[in-house]
Amino acid sequence: MSLRLLTVSALALGLVAAPAVAQDARTEAQAAVIRDAALKSNVALDYVTQITTRFGPRPAGSRSEQQAAAWAADYLRAQGFQNVRIEEFPLVGWERGEDSGAIIGAHPQPLVLAALGHSPATPRGGIEADVVRFTTLDDLRAAPDASVRGKIVYVDLGQMHPMQDGSGYGPQTRVRGAGPGVAAAKGAAAFILRSVGSDENRLPHTGTTQYVDGKATVPSFALSAPDADQVSRLIALGEPVRLRLSSTARTYQTHSQNVIGDLPGATRPDEIIVLGSHMDSWDQGTGAIDDAAGGAITIAAAKAIAASGQRAARTIRVVLYGSEEVAQPTRETGNGGGVYARNQGAAVEKHVIAGESDFGADRVYALRLPAGAQGSDFQKAANRVLYPIGVLSSSQVETEGGVDVGPLGPLGVPFFGLAQDGTRYFDLHHTANDTLDKIDPAQLSQNVAAWAGLVWLIADSDVDFRALRQAAAAAPSAR
């Protein structure tokens, strides 16, 4: 299939073929120019430095997140984005307060832990109870209620293995989300788990829990890896383990927001390409890799295209989503991705494709396109543009996009993915170690170059990724 999606009849008649081929060549050559210029751009490093330094952590719905969003809107305007707006929505915010834990009894010692997001506070004075340990969520589900009632449930899945694609994260984070609800239903006093991370640092990884029927469950905490090992060893020695846990967490009514800015297309401005990341972060670090870096990459990539002096045919839209990190009790309050998708109405039908940067700032190694694009002329052109900076086209189909752009999928919007090296991402993710110094400027620039080159190819082409996906689904081999 041609990069310009020429029809068979047009090719057969020899009509427009030569101009289209020439235009394709110009588009690809311009993509290489933009890619190389993006490697030298300092916009991404400037953005991530400023937002993490000026505002520090940006918990969803906090004053810090709101101030950062207002500042980011001004930043987009200063970079030449048009139609910049802030899309507010209601939110139940969560504030950590103070949290602490300790082993008490015969072997007293402090624990390093963090309350999990949207879990409730303990009673004044904390909770003291014996620990019952499980190694899987299924084991907890199968346990008799009487064996859990009044105790502190501990789920220890063991060390998460570092993987380039981060695939070890999903099975563990499901325990963090659902485990407290299962424990609460069995009458547990509290819930703890080994931090969902691939490191052995004495820094706990926080993250959100889930509401059950609109209600919070039980006070819940993540133990740092060494402390989780300590508790498990004591239990393995046959020692009764009793803990004291304390949290002063609270929820409050607030709002979050999406920040949206466009680079309008020259000839087809109603056709939208969405570049997504999220503004909010957890409260312990400064949210540099999760996800100020994603905003930096997408803003800088779009800016590199604008700075080239060329306008693509289609509109390039950067969205800095609010409230990606936290669960909500009802659909009336919600994450920015769902809010954006619902607010598009009929305009969503003109969303050509969406991609998300939310996996840190280490190098991009693979391009993943939606179904139907594998082996196409577009993929071949993209490979020629991206291969010189170490990015290879993958046969793997991009189907999910990410938490923020994901709600566009059921509305028919295809996704692309630029896969990043996540080997060390979960060493830092959701911890106090998520700070600016963890970003490698050279790898950050390589991300920007990959995004800029690819997005230009998409934005200045006629490729209909929706049609490609539909054709792939209708093909006999797909049935």
Automatic annotation (TrEMBL):
It holds the Pfam family Peptidase_M28. The lineage of its organism: Bacteria, Pseudomonadati, Pseudomonadota, Alphaproteobacteria, Caulobacterales. It comes from the Bacteria. Homodimer. The monomeric form is inactive while the homodimer is active. Keywords: Carboxypeptidase, Endoplasmic reticulum, Glycoprotein, Golgi apparatus, Hydrolase, Lysosome, Metal-binding, Metalloprotease, Protease, Secreted, Signal, Zinc, Zymogen. It is found in: Endoplasmic reticulum; Golgi apparatus; Lysosome; Secreted. This is Carboxypeptidase Q. Its main location: endoplasmic reticulum. Residues 258-452 form the Peptidase M28 domain. Residues 1-22 form the signal peptide. It comes from Brevundimonas nasdae.
